């Protein structure tokens, strides 16, 4: 069996040896990457709040508005759509392996450390379902909680080379899942897959246009349950989380100076592949390239190309953020802007939930209904403003030496008494 020794025979490892990560153990690159990722996430979550806008066959982004709105959508489709989720997945998997390695280095048995990750995954599912039901149907925390349980079971204690092989297998599986529409696209049959009329607006599934909060909550609960328990297991077909396990064992983000060649090549190749893969979808959605509506649907050929290349974009962003952290290391690390963005990364769960706590009541029809009066450009400005508010709040907590509230709760639920010890 391809597992490392679990150490359970040693009585000194019969309990959890330590609590969560300590301040002196944190590295710049992972926290900086998470802080910048939260900006990309809040921007990518803007579309389903525009419930009064005219939507096209993709069902996601609106099609009406000014030239500026069209330009904003073009950029977002190329740089954000299905590129932020792989980024989130990589950083999530990286954090899982960091937690596992910290525990085992302190003397916790591998089996005990795995149990901690199981417990953390369970509580992430609970938090995610509450988040999706109460505020934001597209919550991904619960889905990653489900994925984490499966990842711990199947891949956590594998050897690094085995993890790398399985990441490659997952990449092949991803391509095979999209082989039908990709083959049709290569043959020039752009409209071969997907519903002839395209997809309905995603705002319905997210209930942003529902005026009754209780009715909206029911819709969100249904969508959130599907995203969590169907989307979570499907994440195992994507390679980024397993690849992150391998990268964390190599300390790629903690020590970017030792992996500059790898990071530079990854950024130089993966980011352009990710952007070019989404370019046809962006051009078609913008009306620059005229294609059948089916091609723009979630099952369509252009969506398949966008999704398959999304992993490249997300992993490429990780490399870019790691190189940025390397550039900012040393004195620049104490720069107030860097410190503030890093503070967000240390409180990524709290920041993620705060986005919805502001977005939903202000934009949804059951709240102030501002989403009916915004367009792609103005809601993007609103999203940047919300992120800046969370940056200021996280920086204030950092200066006060306090964790984010969601991190404090999750930490206590995960570690229990061990957190007070270590």
TrEMBL record:
Keyword Membrane tagged: yes
Transmembrane segments: 32-52, 72-95, 116-134, 140-157, 164-186, 224-246, 267-288, 308-328, 349-368, 374-397
PANTHER family: INNER MEMBRANE PROTEIN
Name of this protein: Putative membrane protein YeiB
Keywords: Membrane, Transmembrane, Transmembrane helix
InterPro entries: Bact_Transport_Assoc, DUF418
Pfam families per the UniProt record, alphabetical: DUF418
Keyword field contains Ligase: no
Domain spans labelled DUF418: 247-416
Highest classification ranks of the organism: Bacteria, Bacillati, Actinomycetota, Actinomycetes, Streptosporangiales
């Amino acid at each position: 069996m391809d597992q490392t020794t679990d150490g359970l025979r040693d009585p000194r490892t019969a309990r959890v040896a330590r609590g969560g990560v300590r301040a002196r153990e944190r590295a710049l690159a992972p926290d900086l990457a998470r802080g910048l990722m939260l900006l990309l996430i809040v921007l990518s979550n803007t579309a389903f709040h525009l419930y009064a806008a005219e939507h096209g066959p993709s069902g996601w982004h609106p099609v009406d508005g000014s030239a500026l709105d069209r330009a904003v959508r073009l950029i977002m489709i190329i740089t954000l759509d299905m590129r932020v989720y792989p980024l989130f997945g990589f950083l999530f998997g990286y954090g899982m392996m960091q937690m596992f390695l910290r525990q085992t280095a302190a003397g916790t048995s591998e089996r005990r450390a795995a149990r901690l990750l199981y417990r953390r995954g369970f509580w992430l599912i609970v938090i995610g379902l509450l988040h999706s039901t109460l505020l934001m149907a597209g919550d991904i925390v619960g889905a990653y909680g489900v994925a984490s349980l499966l990842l711990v079971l199947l891949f956590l204690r594998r050897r690094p080379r085995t993890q790398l092989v399985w990441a490659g297998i997952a990449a092949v599986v991803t391509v095979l899942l999209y082989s039908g529409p990709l083959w049709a696209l290569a043959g020039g049959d752009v409209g071969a897959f997907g519903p002839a009329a395209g997809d309905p607006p995603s705002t319905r599934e997210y209930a942003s246009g529902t005026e009754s909060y209780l009715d909206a909550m029911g819709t969100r609960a249904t969508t959130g349950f599907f995203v969590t328990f169907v989307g979570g297991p499907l994440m195992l077909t994507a390679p980024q989380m397993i690849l992150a396990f391998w990268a964390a064992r190599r300390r790629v983000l903690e020590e970017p100076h030792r992996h500059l060649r790898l990071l530079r090549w990854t950024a130089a190749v993966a980011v352009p592949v990710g952007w070019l893969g989404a370019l046809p979808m962006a051009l078609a959605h913008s009306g620059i390239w005229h294609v059948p509506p089916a091609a723009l649907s979630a099952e369509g050929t252009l969506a398949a190309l966008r999704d398959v290349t999304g992993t490249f974009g997300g992993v490429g962003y990780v490399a870019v953020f790691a190189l940025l952290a390397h550039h900012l290391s040393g004195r620049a690390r104490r720069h107030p802007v860097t410190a503030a963005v890093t503070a967000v990364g240390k409180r990524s769960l709290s920041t993620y939930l705060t986005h919805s706590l502001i977005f939903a009541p202000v934009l949804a029809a059951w709240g102030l209904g501002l989403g009916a009066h915004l367009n792609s450009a103005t809601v993007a400005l609103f999203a940047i403003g919300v992120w800046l508010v969370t940056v200021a709040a996280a920086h204030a907590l950092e200066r006060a030496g306090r964790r984010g509230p969601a991190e404090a709760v999750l930490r206590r639920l995960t570690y229990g008494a061990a957190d007070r010890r270590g």
